[in-house]
Design goal:
Length: 237
């Protein structure tokens, strides 16, 4: 199973907002990659190159967004298309709003391993009964995603996919970062209460070194076809 991470930010400011000393997209990209997601795609406008600079040294693709009138589902589909062009055996993608900066790599690994057992289901993490992000969408749901109305916000997109018949499973992973966005300081998060290891018992460690050091190969970010355009914000900044 190969699962991408699609990091969505409707504005450059949201993408590079401070997340405990790191730009938001860099912290998320490091967590996604060290948790086993590949490829990692950031979908956002980058008119002044600030996002590309924040991602320097990370194995990440920075992609031009879909036209704003395509709505949140259009940005999700755009990320899927870029990821699938990079990895042809892609089986799913983590849809990850950039405001959710505190999700841990363990949550990423657990979602990917659960996807291996249930490859056709949408998987969402929960914390204390609340559904959070990132949501893992199987590639089999891509056509249904494209059919969602353009005015639906991300949580509504997930509900519409479920209503369209895409099976969904919520996983209690005990990660407060899945429901608490960057408006909550990292030091103020509730304690992590999830499993001590991934659901499948296998730890993806191959990306951990890159997440912990800036001395890795300076190869990123790569750029999908990109032409800066006007910025339109959404509640997921």
């Amino acid at each position: 199973m190969t699962v991408a991470a699609i990091i969505l930010s409707a504005s450059p400011d949201g993408a590079v907002a401070d997340a405990d000393g790191l730009p938001a997209v860099r912290r998320i990209a490091d967590a996604a990659w060290s948790g086993g997601a590949t490829p990692v795609v950031v979908v956002s406008f980058d008119p002044d190159g600030a996002i590309a600079a924040a991602l320097a040294g990370a194995p990440v693709t920075l992609a031009e967004p879909a036209p704003p009138e395509h709505g949140p589902k259009g940005q999700m589909a755009r990320g899927f298309d870029v990821a699938a062009a990079e990895v042809h055996e892609l089986t799913g993608a983590l849809i990850w709003p950039a405001r959710l900066t505190w999700v841990g790599p363990e949550t990423v690994t657990s979602l990917i391993e659960a996807h291996g057992v249930a490859p056709g289901r949408i998987l969402t993490p929960t914390f204390e009964g609340e559904t959070g992000w990132p949501a893992l969408l199987p590639i089999a749901a891509l056509d249904a995603l494209r059919a969602v109305a353009t005015d639906r916000m991300p949580a509504d997109v997930m509900a519409d996919l479920a209503a369209a018949g895409v099976a969904m499973t919520a996983l209690d992973l005990g990660d407060p970062g899945s429901t608490h966005d960057r408006s909550t300081a990292r030091r103020d998060l509730p304690p992590y209460v999830g499993p001590s290891g991934p659901a499948g018992g296998h730890v993806h460690e191959w990306g951990a070194a890159m997440a912990e050091t800036e001395d890795g190969p300076l190869e990123g970010p790569s750029l999908a076809p990109y032409a800066p355009a006007g910025i339109e914000t959404s509640p997921d900044d």
